[in-house]
Amino acid sequence: MNIKIITDSTADIPRAVAEQYNITVASLDVIMDGQPRKAVDVSEKEFYDHLNDCLANGKPLPTTSQVTIVGFEDVLRPYANVEDTFVLVLTIGKELSNTYNSAAKAIESLGMKNVYLFDTYMTSLALGALVIEVAKLAQAPDATVEKVIEAGEDLNSRVWVYLAIDDLRCLRAGGRLSATAMALGSMLHLKPIVYIYKKVEIAAKTIGQGKAYKWIAERVEAERDESLPVYLASAEVPELLEKMTSHYGEKMGLTGDEAMFSLGPIVGAHAGPGSIAVAFFKKK
Fold it and tell me: Which of 108, 149, 162, 254 is buried most, with the most CB atoms less than 10 Å from its CB?
């Protein structure tokens, strides 16, 4: 049985990794200068150059929109009810975007029977980590649909992500921070740390990057399942990620072989420039 994995572009899985694990990515749109573009076609450099220009010059910030039903139909159609093929779909959580509902309606419209749609509650690097680990399970020699779904749901219940936000303006533009809180935070150099579970929540507020990175490292050390990898990503600031790992890599149990991903246009439009993310799986 061929197990096919499909996700969306909020997972920020690099193209090479998606090809390695036979993952197909349905793209949300990012709207830049009023023009919608497929997020997978916009490089991180182009996006963050544009975002920084908007922030510096008071221009409208980029926004995002969901994958449409038609978009998911196009992605799913080649696998719909194909013999000896089963499709696992892992999208951004339904409380976070209508992308999940688009996938569900596309599955219904195609009459697909060979599919399982995960309700992930997540997005960003947590979704990416989950998708990659499920794809690894699907490629195991003894993989069965039932075993992969069962193990995948266990991972789904334990995946977690913390994001350290460097620039508060995108959080403010997205309505997740009041004007007063933003002004106070900027004055005091506050760096909020957020987690994502059904919605974006502030886990902590620290003063300065160093304390933010230390807070995340301590949570990872205390909470992670050491049998599974840690995933790292940044909003086009790999030097900040390297700074964090050089100071706190041992505390987080890093091996030095971890790939450093990029937060793409969809997540970047909300998290803002300078953000870093750490995803891991919690202990059972």
Answer: 162
